[in-house]
Every structure is written in C-alpha cells, then in structure tokens.
Design brief:
Keywords: Signal. This protein is of the alpha+beta class. It has one domain (about 60-305). The protein is built from six helices and 14 strands. It has helices spanning about 5-10, 40-45, 85-90, 155, 240, 320; strands at about 65-70, 75-80, 110-115, 120-125, 130-135, 145-150, 175, 190, 205-210, 210-220, 250-255, 260-265, 265, 295. It has a seven-stranded mixed sheet with strand order 7-9-10-6-5-11-12. One 2-acetamido-2-deoxy-beta-D-glucopyranose (NAG) binds near residues 97 and 160.
C-alpha cells in the first residue's frame, strides 16, 4: 500500500461510521462506507483476524453499482469515485473539490461503455474514455483473465487526476475486491459474473489516475500473490503491473490468436478546452444522468455493434504481446 494513500486514508478512516449519522443506501444505519481501521491494519500486519465490519452491507454482494466486467474495448465497466456518495459529497463535491481515485477508495460506482449495465451501474459520461485496449488471456488454467487499459478524460468524469507527487502517475489508486479482513477497502465490490458480464469470474484489480486506467477481471482464487489478480503489487502502476503501454485507439486481442487484433472504430467528441471546468457542486456531475455511452462504434452495424460486427482488422500485434 502506497505511503501516500495511507496518509490520505487514515484521516478518512474515522468517517465511515457515526452512530445515528447519515446512511448510504444498503448499509447499516450510520454507515457511509466500509473501511478498515488503518491504524489497526498496520498493527496487525494487514490481517484483522476476527474483527467484524460494523458497516458490512445488509444486502448480498458484490453490491449493485459496484460490479465490473470486461468484454471488449467498447463493452466494459470500471469502478470510479461515486458521484452520489455521501462521504464524497461531504468531503469533496460540496467544497468545490473533486476526489482522486485513491481518495474515493471505499466509495465507488461502476461506469460502463456499451449497452449492458450490471445492476446499479451507470453509463460513462460522454467522451470519458479516450482509448481502450482489451486482452483476453486464457492461457493458464485457473488464471484466466481479461484486461483493459486506456486513457480517460478526468474532467468528463469529474474526478481529480492531479498526481500527489511527480512520478505517482496513477497516484497509487487501486480498487479490488480484497476482503475486509485483509484490510480491503472495496471488499463488497466485484465482478458481474452473469452471462452478460464475465461468467464465473470473481476478482478484479484496478488502478487509475492521471488520465490513465487499467483493470483485470479474473477467475476465483487469483487475488493472491502471484495470481492473475494479485493485489499485493497493486500500487506499482499499470505499466509495471500489467506490462502495458498507453496508445491511442480501441482494440482487442485474444492470446489464443495473438497475431490477430480486432480494432474498433470509435468516434469521440473533441476534448473540451482544459479551462472549461464543469460545476463541481452537488456531486452528481460525474455521471448521473449521462445519456449516452462514451464510445460509439462508427461502423454501419448500428444496434448490433456490441458483437463482432465491427470490421475486424488483422494486423501484427506488437505493443500488446511483446511487452
Ligand atoms: C483504530 O485502531 C486503533 C488501534 O487499535 C484504535 O486505537 C482506534 O480507536 C481505532 N479507531 C476507530 C475509529 O475504531
Ligand atoms: C486536486 O488534487 C490536488 C492535489 O491533491 C489539489 O491540490 C487540488 O485542490 C485538487 N483539485 C480539485 C478540483 O479537487
Ligand atoms: C456469481 O456470484 C455470486 C455472488 O458472489 C455467487 O453466489 C455465484 O455462485 C456466482 N456464480 C458463478 C457462475 O460463478
Ligand atoms: C497470461 O497469463 C499467464 C497467467 O497469469 C501469465 O503467466 C502470462 O504472462 C500472461 N501473458 C501475457 C502476454 O501477459
């Protein structure tokens, strides 16, 4: 866990529960999130034993609104700061601030491109995803995963992508479904394991910040050190953890056919001028009510665009499988 994140989050840790306080929907009374006591985590070497989470959700999890999946570069969901979070409203939006990805650990909302939204998920604001590359790696039994990485427009998402210090390019931001008992901060988030999402998958690990994002969704049992969704290296950044490079465009590769890359033609609105700051009050600016998907295939296929109807272009794959 990055030191910077510890500093930011130990201050926030006290704010998860106030007896009789505001209550986030689906949580026990007085809870606005579910967050381990970081002081205790340090003392107990990140294993809380039989400590009970007083803010454990009242409803089954992964919670609605916190379920991700990856199909292809125009059909995926990642978790991002929840524009409707009581905690984020009180501490950021109402003060004219925007949270970074790491500051919003414990308070996430799934945003999706493509027509399928898991329960409670929202479509990305228009133009929020500027590039996306998906890899399917089913080469090792028990370690199957999909991976997405790309660039995002932080203004469109109403999030703060300022680095805490030079070189902290993703600001140590990480979301995963690591359990509360292991000091996980999004323990009740997870993968949409329906047939419309990633059937049978369970874990995810995601990093984002500074206009970059990456995420893997993985089979059960892979959250451990050395697993495909290893959370022990989740502060190292996308380039190191996932061995990716950030390039333009939208494409897909299955390592079972590594020479074939499917590219997707996506029309994006121009980036707004960097001086045009959207209103940050109220907290709903991040995504609520955004009417359309981020990415729209510009092929003639229209409504059936979520399948492979986009023209497949077979080119040699350099960037994705050499690195
Ligand atoms: C967090 O843990 C520390 C050390 O065990 C304890 O002193 C402190 O009271 C705890 N804080 C909360 C809010 O429970
Ligand atoms: C973004 O984060 C930086 C660094 O923490 C901070 O100085 C700035 O005020 C934040 N901006 C907003 C709009 O929240
Ligand atoms: C999907 O996830 C739910 C909740 O974790 C679990 O009960 C169920 O067995 C999973 N289904 C599959 C096919 O993995
Ligand atoms: C595919 O996954 C396996 C198992 O996690 C891993 O050993 C291998 O390096 C991955 N391949 C690529 C190209 O990332």
């Amino acid at each position: 866990m990055a030191a910077i994140a510890l500093v930011l989050l130990s201050a926030a840790a006290q704010a998860q529960y106030f007896q009789g306080g505001e209550t986030e929907p689906g949580l026990p009374s007085g809870c606005v999130g579910s967050y381990p006591n970081i002081t205790m985590c340090r003392e107990k070497n990140w294993y809380l034993g039989d400590t009970v989470d007083i803010c454990k959700p009242l409803i089954p999890y992964p919670l609605p609104g916190q379920q991700v999946y990856i199909k292809d570069p125009i059909n995926f969901c990642i978790n991002l700061p929840n524009p409707d979070s009581i905690f984020l409203k009180n501490n950021y939006y109402s003060k004219g601030l925007r949270p970074t990805v790491v500051q919003a650990e414990g308070f996430v909302q799934a945003f999706c491109s493509g027509p399928y939204l898991p329960p409670g998920a929202k479509p990305f604001p228009v133009g929020a995803i500027r590039s996306a590359h998906v890899m399917k790696n089913f080469t090792v039994p028990g370690q199957h995963y999909y991976q997405v990485h790309g660039t995002m427009d932080c203004d469109a998402l109403n999030i703060n992508c300022t680095q805490s210090f030079p070189g902290a390019y993703d600001d140590g931001g990480q979301y995963d479904d690591g359990p509360f008992i292991s000091c996980g901060k999004e323990p009740y988030s997870g993968v949409d394991n329906s047939t419309s999402g990633n059937l049978g998958f369970k874990h995810y690990v995601e990093m984002a910040g500074n206009g970059l994002f990456c995420m893997r969704v993985c089979e059960p049992g892979t959250l451990v050190e050395g697993g495909a969704c290893d959370v022990t290296h989740d502060t190292e950044g996308c380039e190191k953890y996932m061995r990716v490079k950030f390039t333009s465009g939208f494409d897909y590769v299955d390592l079972a056919a590594p020479g074939a890359v499917t590219t997707f033609s996506v029309s994006l609105p121009p980036l707004p001028s960097p001086t045009a700051m959207p209103s940050s009050g109220g907290g709903s600016g991040g995504g609520a009510g955004a009417p359309v998907n981020t990415v729209n295939p510009s092929s003639k296929s229209g409504a059936i665009s979520r399948t492979w109807s986009c023209s497949a272009v077979f080119v040699l794959l350099f960037a994705l499988y050499i690195v």
